[in-house]
Amino acid sequence: MSRAVHELSIAENILSIVGRYVPEGERPFVRSVKVSIGAQAGIVPDSLKFCFEAVASESPFPAATLVIENVPFTIRCRTCGAISSPEDGTLLCASCGSMDAEITGGTEMRVVEVEVDDAEKGVR
Amino acid sequence: MSVVTIERKVLEKNDEVALRNRTLFTDHGVYVINMVSSPGAGKTTILEKTIDLLKGKTRLAVIEGDVQTDIDARRIERSGIPAVQIVTRGGCHLEANLVHEALQSIKLAELDLLVIENVGNLVCPANYDLGENVKVVVASTTEGDDKPLKYPAMFRNAAVLLINKIDLVPYINARPDVLRKNAFSINPHLVVFETSALTNQGMDAWAQWLLDQATKTKPAR
Fold first, then answer.
1. CB distance B6–A114 less than 8 Å?
2. For residues B72-87, average pLDDT
3. Which of B5, B10, B88 is the closest to A13 by Cβ?
4. Within-domain flag for A90
5. Is A94 contained in some domain?
6. Is the CB of A49 inside 8 Å of chain B's CB atoms?
7. Which member of A18, A22, A91 has the closest CB to residue B186?
8. Which residues face B3 on adjacent strands?
């Protein structure tokens, strides 16, 4: 489903993936969902967190919060082999100034893991 | 507290549908471009001029993505080629499943080239694969030379850059060479065309490039 802010659509995608991994009986006890978001993934972390919690509150995971692991944008220079992290998303090697580089991280969006509160589950 | 390991791509669902679209396109030998830009960069006008140049040389159709109205699809239909409108009703980008639905109304077997005109937005469409061969990003000279630095994801994921409204350069404070340099600092592999959909400057080169891609994609019969 597409919506006015794409972070909302991203949040819905995250919850639908979580739903495939957590059995129905455990869903209310999902405490947190950890995602890995690249600095150059085109996502505003605060906006994603806000959207996630809005969507989660009306989902089978009402207690879930979003934990965002920020992955820096990194490149490996094909000229000198150096690894650098240009904050502006360009391919400029900080070591030799070459622009011939491959991206090694920082564009991804992954759901990493969820935490389920077993103690609370046992009480009910 | 117990931990369930997941390790999945957030947009894997979209990517799966995109792959289904891509397989359909490949099976039918249709070359597909996904046109993206800010609102008002000139996508639809470029498209109309491109259709004028390619009509009769290749069989093409258009999928129009807009937040509201079918104005753009009606504009394209006036050019005499099939156009399907997707109205996202507020959605800021097209997703692969919307394109998949639109494909029900398109006869791929009768096509060489399909143009998907995305919603005018340089942020959100960057993340969504629709199954296209390439993303074509349009940046107009009036938008500022630093556009690629402000919206790097889109320029990184595109294969072609059209610098449009090139006819306005003498009248405004625009430096297309700086725009080009900024774009290359994000993505050195971009194929760049300077165009004016108004005066037709550069349009022949762009249309010819597109025709060459469509011809290459068509399997020999």
1. yes
2. 92
3. B10
4. no
5. no
6. no
7. A91
8. A115
The amino acid occupying position B148 is P
**How does pLDDT run across A81-123, given as a tens digit for each residue?**
999 999 999 999 999 999 999 999 999 999 999 999 987 766 5
Sheet strands (E) in A1-124: 30-38, 65-71, 74-77, 83-84, 101-105, 109-116
d(CA A106, CA A38): 4
Interchain proximity A17–B3, CB inside 8 Å? no
For B181-216, b/e burial (b = at least 16 CB within 10 A) is: ebbbbbbeebeebbbbbeeeebbeebbeebbebbee
pTM of the model: 0.92
Give one DSSP letter per residue of B64-122, joined into a string: EEESS-SHHHHHHHHTTS-EEEEE-TT-SS--HHHHHHHGGGS-GGG-SEEEEE--S-S
Domain range for A21 = 6-71+105-117
CB contact under 8 A, B11 and A10: yes
* Count of residues making up chain A: 124
CATH architecture of B12-213: 3-Layer(aba) Sandwich (3.40)
Contact B145, B169 (CB under 8 A): no
CATH at A41: 3.30.2320.50
Is-contact B151 B179, C-beta < 8 A? no
Interface of B with A in 23-42 (CB under 8 A): none
Token pair listed for A9: 């659509």
DSSP H helices in chain B: 12-27, 43-54, 71-78, 96-102, 147-150, 152-157, 176-186, 203-217
Going across the sheet that includes A101-105, the strands are: A83-84, A74-77, A101-105
